[in-house]
Amino acid sequence: MSTETPTAPGTTPPAAGTAAETGARTPQAAGIITDARQRIDDLDGRIIGLVQERMAVSAVIQRERLTSGGRRVNLSREMEILAHYRDQLGKPGTALAMTLLELSRGQI
Fold first, then answer.
1. Tens of pLDDT along 81-107?
2. 12 secondary structure, DSSP code
3. Cα(51)–Cα(44) distance, integer angstroms
4. What is the C-alpha separation between 81 and 95, in angstroms, rounded?
5. At what angle do helices 91-105 and 75-89 cross, to 10 degrees?
6. For the whole model, what pTM was predicted?
7. CA–CA separation, 108 vs 56, rounded Å?
8. Of 53, 62, 51, 47, which is closest to residue 105 (Cα–Cα)?
9. CA 22 to each of CA 25, 37, 62: distance values in angstroms, whole numbers, following the listed order
10. 78 exposed, middle or buried (CB, 10 Å; 0-12, 13-18, 19+)?
11. Which residues, 6+ apart, have CB-to-CB distance to 66 below 8 Å?
12. Helix, strand, coil abundance in the chain, percent, nearest 5
């Protein structure tokens, strides 16, 4: 099943990055938006890779803590992380940090 929007007979569909596709009102703005979206996609890929790396490092810490007789979670360290994200990003930073912590160590 095609998800493409049909075009009227005798017309051509808009090219990638056109004003219609980006919501822009000029071709220049559409080009800027298309380029910026590509940059965001690239950044998202890097962010995902960094989150995966953070998860792997956290797994090492948890394993070492547990094998040495410690607890799986260090709440004072988590409070430091939450404060750091909040200080840098405001209230939404706390939610982001909570998500990263949950991804890295699971739910408490």
1. 999 999 999 999 999 999 999 999 988
2. -
3. 10
4. 11
5. 140
6. 0.76
7. 18
8. 62
9. 9, 9, 45
10. middle
11. 72
12. 70, 0, 30
Tell me if 19 sits within 8 A of 25, measured CB to CB.
yes
* Angle at alpha carbon of residue 45, lines to 48 and 58, rounded to 5°: 20
Closest CA to 5 of 33, 14, 71: 14
Place of tokens 């099943």: 1
- Whats the size of the chain, residue-wise? 108
Q: Residue 66 corresponds to which tokens in the numbers above?
A: 């547990």
Q: Give residue 90's identity as a one-letter amino acid code.
A: G
List the structure tokens of 87.
């200080």
CB within 8 A of 108, min separation 6: which ones?
73
According to the model, what pLDDT value does residue 15 have? 53
